[in-house]
Amino acid sequence: MQQDKTLPLLDDPGAVEAACFAAINQSCCGKGGIPYRDLDKARLAYKTRDVDATRQVKRAGEAHQHTHQQKAYDELSCSHTESHKKTSSDYLKAIVFGGLDGIVTIFAIVAGCVGANLHPSKVVIIGIGNLLADAISMGFGEFVSSAAEEDFVKSEREREEWEIENCPNEEKQEMVEIYRDRYGFTDEDADCLVNITFKYREFFVQHMMVEELGLMANEGPSPIRRGAVMFASFSIFGLLPLAGFVAWLTLSGMKTDGHLAFAMACVISGIALFILGFFKGRFVNQSPLKSGLLMIINGTCAGTVAYAVGAALEDVVAVTV
């Protein structure tokens, strides 16, 4: 079960910048709402290292007249509203969302098996098998997506560096237009600021990445570490429903049909979901209590559906087989 990554992406300030500015300028700025030039043509020109084509793209962008001149800064307030997340926050994100996925997924599997009246030993075997398989899938998926994001940012940075080296005047003009149209600078002030910042190449490149493309260099954990944390979180928290199930079976000496053991799994899963949901709420600046309760509702719905489907299919199979 792959975790929806929409929310984590919006935690990145660069992604928020791009999303907000794209929404505002979609109708008049071309694909993705990125202003001043056609990025597809710019990337093609860079791929062939065609300086003349690059300059033509930039000049075409300069000739483009926006009907909207100055947007109040508060219209873009969805960007740059928080400081950058630290590495610990990146780990916390993977732990919380991986853990939530693990609990809900394995709890639903246990519920479906119990609903189908499978023998408790089979429930444990199926649960452990799915736990390991899903944990590997989640960890690898996190690694692949993080690596792809890093590669994209790296390739865009290399293109910007090449353009600055080969088309410095055009790059300066792009920043002048951004300062003027987005932040309300006068042409004189924008020129002055650009000429100063251009002296510091590293700063200028990073600044252009943020302002023009909405991209920021990844300063968090490596893709391998993110994948490992996701795998570990899914495995550890996903084990909790099974742990409650097995604990009751052990205490009862296997003298149960599995439903009482499932009740114990429900209690442990509910507590774990509330705790993780509570921290999820704090992480995304929502009500922790509300977030915790929503996670319990999420787990309850998933477990109920799985149990009902298991029970229904058990009756169907019993009749047809």
From TrEMBL:
Primary localisation category? membrane
Could you list this entry's UniProt keywords, alphabetically sorted.
Answer: Membrane, Transmembrane, Transmembrane helix
User: Among its keywords, does the record have Transcription?
Assistant: no
The residues the entry assigns to the signal sequence are none
A biological process (GO) of this protein is:
intracellular manganese ion homeostasis
Q: Where in the cell is it found?
A: Endomembrane system
| Keyword match Transmembrane | yes
Superkingdom of this entry's organism?
Answer: Eukaryota
| TM regions (residue ranges) | 94-118, 228-248, 260-279, 291-313
Q: Which Pfam families match?
A: VIT1
Q: How does it sit in the membrane?
A: Multi-pass membrane protein
Give GO cellular component annotations, separated by semicolons: endomembrane system
One GO MF annotation is: manganese ion transmembrane transporter activity
Record-linked InterPro entries: Ccc1_fam
Assigned protein family: Belongs to the CCC1 family.
Name by which UniProt lists this protein = Integral membrane protein, putative
